[in-house]
């Protein structure tokens, strides 16, 4: 922790946990037939479990409930995160895992990096070089040279929406974290789980139909949902800790390397091949981290 600094160390931890959470979540959505309603149910169950865990921990520690602007930053961020996560899960589950993540990973790093200039000042030449190198690494890690593994137009549009939404969420979570890591996370989960439920009910009321279904009683599906929820919660808490320990852009850019974890898990468990470009991107991330943390 002292070598990297808490700001960078927590950012990298968030990337590792989010990579695993996205992998598990996208598998759960794939088991639902890559449907909108399936993705909404995965987000609702996962975030409701996350809310219960985090709120319980915050209550046991005696942390005061957030109020005012801080609370609304968390809830508003959660609303955006819910919609973005559904879009991203569907994008991941409809094709080669990671192709669409390139766009999403870049956008969710760029938005808070721009905001950080106004909050924390210019990042400096070395750190800015690290950001540019990290952006290149994220693109190489999450992209594919194989045209048969490229994302569809629909998946790419969903990834763009998801990436912009994640970037806004990253900023909102920083302000929500002023009330503490646990309640900042809990307030975001209130917004995300409520939004997922509301959209699901709206689709039911208007008679929205699509192919595929999800059975939440299925053991493997539930395990993927719960596993993804725990990893995602850990990633969010780590990211919140990173923003409280230092610059927003450092936390966001390092956390945005999360596609590497998704790609490695897909290669290991689903036997998806990694390209030379992806492997080189992972190596390129190492000097990027070094420059950012100098």
From TrEMBL:
TM region(s), chain numbering: 6-27, 39-59, 71-92, 99-119, 125-143, 155-176, 188-209, 221-242, 248-270
Protein's UniProt keywords contain Transmembrane helix: yes
SUPFAM superfamilies reported for this sequence: Multidrug resistance efflux transporter EmrE
Q: Which GO terms describe its cellular component?
A: membrane
| Keyword list, A-Z | Membrane, Transmembrane, Transmembrane helix
For the EamA domain, which residue ranges apply?
155-293
Report what the protein is called: EamA-like transporter family protein
Database matches in InterPro entries:
EamA_dom (IPR000620), EmrE-like (IPR037185)
């Amino acid at each position: 922790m002292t070598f990297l600094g808490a700001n960078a160390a927590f950012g990298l931890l968030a990337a590792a946990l989010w990579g695993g959470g996205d992998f598990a979540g996208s598998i759960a959505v794939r088991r639902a037939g890559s449907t909108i309603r399936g993705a909404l149910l995965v987000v609702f169950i996962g975030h409701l479990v996350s809310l219960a865990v985090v709120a319980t921990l915050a209550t046991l520690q005696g942390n005061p409930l957030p109020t005012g602007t801080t609370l609304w930053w968390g809830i508003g961020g959660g609303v955006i995160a819910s919609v973005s996560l559904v879009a991203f899960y569907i994008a991941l589950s409809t094709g080669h895992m990671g192709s669409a993540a390139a766009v999403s990973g870049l956008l969710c790093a760029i938005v808070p990096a721009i905001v950080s200039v106004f909050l924390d000042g210019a990042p400096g030449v070395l750190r800015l070089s690290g950001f540019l190198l990290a952006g290149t690494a994220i693109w190489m890690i999450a992209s594919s040279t194989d045209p048969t593994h490229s994302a569809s137009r629909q998946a790419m549009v969903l990834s763009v929406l998801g990436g912009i939404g994640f970037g806004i969420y990253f900023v909102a979570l920083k302000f929500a974290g002023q009330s503490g890591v646990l309640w900042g996370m809990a307030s975001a989960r209130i917004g995300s789980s409520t939004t997922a439920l509301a959209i699901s009910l709206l689709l039911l009321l208007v008679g929205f139909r699509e192919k595929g279904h999800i059975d939440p009683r299925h053991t493997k599906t539930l395990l993927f949902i719960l596993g993804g929820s725990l990893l995602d919660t850990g990633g969010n808490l780590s990211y919140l800790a990173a923003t409280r320990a230092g610059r927003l852009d450092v936390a966001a850019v390092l956390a945005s390397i999360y596609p590497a974890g998704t790609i490695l898990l897909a290669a290991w468990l689903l036997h998806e091949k990694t390209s030379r470009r992806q492997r080189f991107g992972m190596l390129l991330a190492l000097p990027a981290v070094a420059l950012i943390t100098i």
